[in-house]
Fold this protein.
Amino acid sequence: MRIAVIGATGLIGSKVVALLEGDGQEVVPASRASGALIGPIAVDDVAAEVAGPADSVVNIGGPHEISFADLARRLLAEQGVDEPVVVDADATYFGAQLRRDSLVTV
């Protein structure tokens, strides 16, 4: 069988790939961590790689989590901004609150 495995380099995916290959199956591994694969296949390229029919698809890819700060850095970097200055609306409020709370009346 030809089996596409999404999440092939993860904790569970790597074990599934090993089991399938040990059973003689043809595995098409896909992972966001494409550098970890021999003959890497990025998730975005899976459709092209599995253009021939796959008998089965195993999807055990975990969620790709990114913080808002990381997202902002990536977007700014794509625009050519290397050292962004970020102002948070809450920062001014909490800063003012801190100054007010530390005032001493005489």
Remarks:
- The chain has two domains: 2-59, 68-101.
- Strands lie at 2-6, 26-30, 56-59.
- The two ends are 83 Å apart (CA to CA).
- The mean pLDDT is 74.
